Amino acid sequence: MITEIQTDFYRITLPMPYRLRHVHVYALVQGSDVALFDTGMNMPGSYELLEADLKSIGLGTKSIRDIYITHSHTDHCSMAGLLQKRTTAKIHLSSIADNVYQYFHKADELIPVARLFYARHGMSPGEVDAMVEEIDDISSIIATFNADDYLEQNEIREFGNYKFEVIFTPGHAAGHVCFFFREEGMLMAGDHILPYIAPSLSPNIFDDIYQPLKSYLESLDVVEQLQITTIYPGHGNSFTGISERVAEIRTHHELRKQVILQSLNAQPKTTYSISAEVSGAGASRWDDWEKFMALNETYVYLQELEREGAIIEELNDKILGYTSI
Ligand SMILES: [Zn+2]
């Protein structure tokens, strides 16, 4: 589905299998040239949909000159490889996002680290196997691509008559960037700010120093300072009122962090058991993907609480346990 949201500026909605069921990519048109912001997910029929949508406005995927990627989650960029093969488009993303993407298709490195990480955080061997299968599924849709260049913090890029700034916004994903069109007041937000849900946070299992929540909150501060009129997110409708939305998301994280802190006592608990406990009855209906996401998010809060000195993490018999102070 293609929607003209402003003159020469289109939103194209493509499918994805996860809970939101759709992802938006944005196309900026200058004459017969297109700059695409994110690519959508490499799943059956997606490429054909993108082609048909661009055809409906007299263009096509061959018109794509540049591809700007907000972050390297598969729903946002896994079609980049296919587009690189079939077009002459140049691919631009941050160097960190490129690194993160590379991990996903090195299954021989990723899977042993993931097995160790999720077992340490309290998943049973059967659950770890199921989670590895999920990771394998994701790896299977990844088509590799080679970045043409890396985006730098605050640099200004041009496309036709448009100018936009690269704003580094790590948190939802390492290496996430937003694109800010200062003159038009538009923010191409990727998954940094979404209208209905708080963007998910996950640890980087290769990098224990990376603090997703701390980085994410700092990145909210950064975009709040910009003179933004309209936010164009990767999922959901465009919206206005950045300060209100930022305040809601901040409150959400503070409340979730407090709930996790309050679930702790002198008895060590694993990340996985805490994630189920704070989610109540709903946890018994989780599928493998939801278990994985819940554990990830819980660990992000535990990491932050530990950094603040509010809780203690201890390794006992290869399992990490958390206690309150
Ligand atoms: Zn994402």
Annotation keywords:
alpha/beta; Metallo-beta-lactamase, Chain A; 2 domains; five-stranded mixed beta sheet; binds zinc ion
What does the secondary structure layout of this molecule look like, with pairings?
Elements: E1 2-6, E2 9-15, E3 22-30, E4 33-37, H1 46-55, E5 64-68, H2 74-77, H3 80-86, E6 90-93, H4 95-104, H5 107-120, H6 125-140, E7 149-150, E8 156-159, E9 162-168, E10 177-181, E11 186-190, H7 212-224, E12 230-233, H8 242-262, H9 271-279, H10 288-307, E13 311-316, E14 319-324
The protein binds zinc ion (ZN).
Residues 71, 73, 76, 172-173, 191 line the site of zinc ion.
Task: Describe, in short, the structure shown.
The chain is of the alpha/beta class and 325 residues long. It has ten helices and 14 strands.
Describe, in plain words, how this protein is organized in 3D.
By secondary structure, the chain is of the alpha/beta class. The protein folds into 2 domains: 2-103 and 143-250, Metallo-beta-lactamase, Chain A (4-Layer Sandwich); 106-139 and 263-324, no CATH class. The chain is 38% helix and 23% strand. It is built from 10 helices and 14 strands. α5 packs antiparallel against α6 (125-140), α7 runs antiparallel to α8 and α9 (271-279) packs across α10 (288-307). The N and C termini lie far apart (53 Å).
